[in-house]
């Protein structure tokens, strides 16, 4: 049978420019750059990464802080364009990448639901249909008219997760978002992810908890210093990963 590849990451490299100095003014920057006293250091956050994800798979990403997991997810979500290589995605993506991305802290929870819907490309009617579901799932019914700057990080995570998991996206990206929720909410999220998987959604999941990764994922990608160190079955890769650090 032909494989149905939903995410195709081909030779992806990502370069960031780190300026080594701070400037007090544009004038100072201009003078120094004319005198060639500005050094821009190149930093490769991703180095020649290639892998494929099949439709319906659930892929975990592990690696130490700063190894490049979030950067990789951002190139898949289309938030960042890779410096080299390409990412092909077939289908819709519900990205849960940075907590608060797509949120306006001065607006209420209700207003943010509609704001987020607009960012995700959903109509107002569509969001209204799922409004009750989002409130129930996030258990924030008493707080819908509160500006979310007054929310705790766990409350923000609940709201973000409730919004990201409405409908049935082709791909759900979850980057660390569960880690700030309490254990009961984490279980609830895991259950919802499992339900989405049963309905065919492909999952990309970053977590520092190997236990959680083993529960949620079938496959695992291990990223180290921007390189794909290992890719394969979750049991196998997580065992070697756990031993290596
Ligand atoms: N916009 C940026 N400009 C410069 N450097 C960046 C930028 N975004 C990320 N980096 C750098 O790229 C590297 C990878 O960062 P990334 O956020 O992808 O790591 P991560 O694996 O998600 O880490 P964590 O486990 O802490 O979430 C880090 O060294 C980080 O400092
Ligand atoms: Mg990260």
Question: What do you see in this structure?
Answer:
The protein has 245 residues and is an alpha/beta fold. The chain has one domain: Rossmann fold (3-Layer(aba) Sandwich). Helices cover 37% and strands 28% of the residues. The protein has a 6-stranded mixed β-sheet, sandwiched between helices. A hairpin with a 2-residue loop joins strand 8 and strand 9 (227-233). The chain is globular and about 60 Å long. The two termini are 38 Å apart. Adenosine-5'-triphosphate (ATP) binds next to strand 1, strand 2 and helix 2.
Features:
globular, binds magnesium ion, about 240 residues, alpha/beta, Rossmann fold, about 35% helix, three-stranded antiparallel β-sheet, binds adenosine-5'-triphosphate, six-stranded mixed β-sheet, 9 strands
How is the topology of this model organized?
Blueprint: E1 5-19, H1 26-34, E2 40-54, E3 58-62, H2 69-77, E4 84-89, E5 93-96, H3 109-120, H4 124-138, H5 153-164, E6 171-175, H6 183-198, E7 202-206, H7 210-216, E8 219-224, E9 227-233, H8 234-244
Parallel strand pairs: 3-7, 3-8, 5-6, 6-7
Antiparallel strand pairs: 1-2, 1-4, 8-9
The site of magnesium ion (MG) has 4 residues, from helix 2.
